[in-house]
Design brief:
Elements (H helix, E strand, L loop, with lengths): L1 H5 L4 E4 L7 H4 L11 E7 L18 E4 L3 E5 L3 E5 L2 H17 L3 H9 L1 H14 L2 E2 L11 E2 L2 H12 L7 E6 L8 E8 L3 E9 L4 E9 L3 E8 L6 E8 L4 E8 L1
Helix pairs in contact: 4-5, 5-6
């Protein structure tokens, strides 16, 4: 694991499912000394601890939702499963999400300093947690995984918006008059975003505001019964950026 860490790889591991103090009875891989290991225990939807813990808050890093989780099965089916084996993939997927964020500075840093970038990534995960009383004094972070908190920390590291403001879809387009049209836009940071619909003459037909969070997928529904048949432009903006996309009502 240490060699993988030097290559920039974090190993996310599950602890024992029993509600035991690993400091007293021992546990692997919780006791592996590598700083590139993230040890995960299980909390349920009520933030009740359902896995093992560290009485000295040294051998357990954080919790993640595990009980009553769902996973895919063959033949287009889902089943529920739980335990720390369900909690751990939540953290693994969260780390993957953070690495996929559009932050050129961090991406470049991972290439030249892979080990240090992995340490920073672990800090994003640990410091972004929601603090839970059931985990205080039992985990290093004292908290449960919170990806929004971790993404906000990554954004701060990136120096502001870590992904571009994007109008991701206008569907259906063109739209038959009288039907609602769905417009989605992705926001890089927590802010108030203004949006408007204008016609080809630049006249504002509709406008509004949306309070959005970091890396949010926002939905605006426009009723075309309020519009005449023709071409329109949807614009979304905040103080730093503006994006416009065309749609047609027929």
């Amino acid at each position: 694991m240490e060699e993988m860490g030097q290559a920039g790889i974090l190993s996310v591991v599950a602890c024992n499912n029993s509600n035991i103090d690993v400091d007293e009875v021992g546990d692997l891989p919780s006791f592996c000394p590598s700083e590139f290991i993230v040890v995960v225990t299980n909390t349920d939807r009520q933030d009740i601890l359902n896995g093992s813990y560290s009485g000295t808050a040294t051998h357990m890093d954080l919790s993640a939702p595990g009980s009553q989780s769902f996973t895919t099965r063959p033949d287009d089916r889902y089943i529920s499963f739980g335990g720390t084996s369900a909690s751990t993939p939540h953290v693994t997927g969260g780390i993957g999400l953070l690495y996929s964020a559009n932050c050129e500075g961090y991406a470049s840093f991972t290439k030249v300093e892979p080990a240090e970038s992995a340490r920073i990534m672990k800090t994003f995960i640990m410091d972004g947690t929601d603090k839970i009383s059931a985990l205080e004094g039992k985990t290093v972070s004292g908290g449960r995984l919170n990806l929004e908190g971790s993404l906000n920390l990554l954004q701060e590291y990136c120096g502001g918006g870590a992904a571009p403001l994007t109008i991701s879809s206008i569907t259906p387009n063109p739209i038959l008059y009288g039907n609602p049209i769905s417009i989605r836009f992705l926001t890089p940071d927590e802010s108030t975003y203004r949006y408007r619909v204008t016609d080809v003459l630049g006249r504002t037909i509709l406008k509004g505001e949306k309070e959005s969070s970091t890396f949010a997928n926002n939905l605006v529904t426009v009723e075309t019964s309020d519009l005449a048949i023709g071409v329109y432009f949807f614009t979304v903006e905040n103080a730093r950026d503006s994006k416009t996309k065309q749609f047609m009502v027929y």
